[in-house]
Fold this protein.
Amino acid sequence: MNEEQLRARQYILSNKELPPEYGAVIINASSETSISLYGHIDTVIVHTREEEAQVQVRGRYRKDLDTLYILDYGAISFPPEFLERKLFEEDKRELSRLLGLRDKNSRLVGWNTVKKKLLEQGFTIKDGREKNRRYSIIQE
């Protein structure tokens, strides 16, 4: 670490908050369990997929947090034209193709996997039948 980094680190350890001239702090594996932060922090961004590290980094800030962003390579960018309408089999296939989600063997996943992922991301899905054809309606 350079002189400025050492000074900032010492300030954080002594005062349990960021130095006033800083608006961000980066916590790596060397300090994910050794510091506590109070003061005012609006947002924490956790750039790792390891759940234990996510918990540890979030836990460094000891007050309520307004916003927490966690890395998710599987996050879906959902096309709005598929919201709030009946999606029949051909629509579901098209949506699956557009989303481009792939399994561990790099094959496009089918509707059941897409549906599961959408539910995990907070969408609601209502299933129904019309003229002996199944459909799903996706809502935010």
User: Anything to note?
Assistant: Helices lie at 3-15, 51-59, 89-99, 111-120.
